[in-house]
Design a protein that fits this description.
This protein is an all-alpha fold. It has one helix and no strands. The longest helix has 53 residues, at 52-104.
Length: 105
Amino acid sequence: MLRPKIPTNPTPTGRVTPPAAVEPTAIVPAAQTPPTVPAAPAPSRPVVQLTPGTALALVGGGTAVVLVVGAVLVSMLLTVAVTAVSVAVCAVVLRSLLASDAKRR
C-alpha cells in the first residue's frame, strides 16, 4: 500500500578537505603564586533605606494608583449598566410596536 519514502542524505559535492592535524604543544608551568584570600562577598542587591518621607511618598503613590484603578473600573461598570438599560428599553419599545401592529391586522 502506501509506504513513506525515507530521504537519503546527499553526498557532498565539491572539494572535501581532510581534518587538519593538531600538533601537541609543551606546557610550561608558571611561577607559583600564593592563593589570594577572597574578600567579603558583596551583597547581591543594594540595600534600600526608607526614610519617613519616602515611605509617605510610597503610601501616597499606592493610594493614588488604587483610586485611579477603582475609578476606571467603576466607570466601566457604569457604562455596561447604562448600555444594558438602553438595550432593554429598546427591546420593550420594539415589542410594544410589534404587538400593536399585530393587533391592528
